[in-house]
Amino acid sequence: MRRSGIGRGGTPLTRLRRRLGLERSELRRRVDRVQRVIALALLVLLLGTAPPLAAWAATWSYEAGVRAEDAERANRRQVVATVTATGGIGASGDRYVHETVHATWAGENGENRVGTLPSWKGAKVGAQRRIWVDRDGNPAVRPRPHSRTVTDAAYAGTAAVLGCGLPVLVMYIVVRRRCDRHRDRMWEADWARMDADAGHNPRS
Fold first, then answer.
1. Where are the alpha helices (DSSP H) in the chain?
2. Banded pLDDT at 182 (limits 50, 70, 90)
3. Distance (Å, rounded) from C-alpha 168 to C-alpha 48?
4. What is the rounded distance in angstroms from the CA atom of residue 25 to the CA atom of residue 20?
5. What is the pLDDT of residue 4?
6. Which residues contact 58 (CB under 8 A, 6 or more apart)?
7. What is the C-alpha to C-alpha distance for residues 6 and 99, in angstroms, rounded to an integer?
8. Is the separation of the CB atoms in 53 and 168 below 8 Å?
9. How many C-beta atoms surround the C-beta of residue 204 within 10 A?
């Protein structure tokens, strides 16, 4: 005859209380239950604050990224640059230099613009390449890609979760250490009581 689930381990609520360490047991001290209750409270606090903050941070970052995408696309355009000379050397910060080419491209009003561009493989006089320019016709980097917006939003959500989780973790560590010290004192008192009882054993 099969036994019921209650016979094997009690009701689901009882088993949950046992796993969480909240049921009464002679082997579990009050400080153990207090620690578990505080841990559960901190967990509930984390679950109640981290997801909304992560959603807000991710949404704010995504919307800001989309606005940046739209602004950069509106202020930049692609033109065809034609190489007029090669073999130049241009400085790029204080750490390194790179090869450049002289090129011309169409400005905002159709006039020819002349400047230097970073060289690329196969660049030679007459070679053409599409480049991004700003409203003034100066070379610019390509507009912000949407993939970067999505990545930044994911980073923002993750940072929000970590920002919420770290203080909660620190609080739990502090509580755990204080409970451990209290348990150590209780064990020392119990051992001292056992030693005292052994020293006054009437059978000795």
1. 5-9, 12-20, 30-75, 146-199
2. confident
3. 12
4. 13
5. 46
6. 153, 154, 156, 157, 160
7. 79
8. no
9. 6
- Residues 63 and 150 sit within 8 Å (Cβ to Cβ): no
**Burial group, residue 194, by CB count within 10 angstroms (0-12, 13-18, 19+):** exposed
| 156, 57 contact by CB (below 8 A) | yes
DSSP letter (8 states) at residue 102: E
Identify any residues that bridge with 132 across adjacent strands, giving them in sequence order.
78, 140
- Both tokens of 135, joined, read 């409203």
Count Cα neighbours of 111 within 13 Å in the Cβ-side half-sphere.
6
For the residues 5-14, what does the mean pLDDT come to? 58
At residue 45, the 3 state secondary structure works out as helix
The pLDDT, as a whole number, for residue 108 is: 78
How far apart (Å, rounded) are the C-alpha atoms in residues 139 and 136? 9
Distances (CA, A) of 161 to 52, 61, 67: 9, 14, 24
Average pLDDT value for the chain: 81
CB 88 within 8 A of CB 97: no
Q: How far apart are CA 62 and CA 156, in angstroms?
A: 9
**Rg (alpha carbons) of the chain, rounded to whole number:** 35
**Alpha-carbon span 9 to 12, nearest angstrom:** 8
What residue segments make up the domains of the chain, in order of their start? 28-75+143-180, 77-142
Give the tens place of pLDDT for each residue, 137-168.
889 999 999 999 999 999 999 999 999 999 99
Q: What separation, in Å, do the N-terminal and C-terminal C-alpha atoms of the chain show?
A: 52
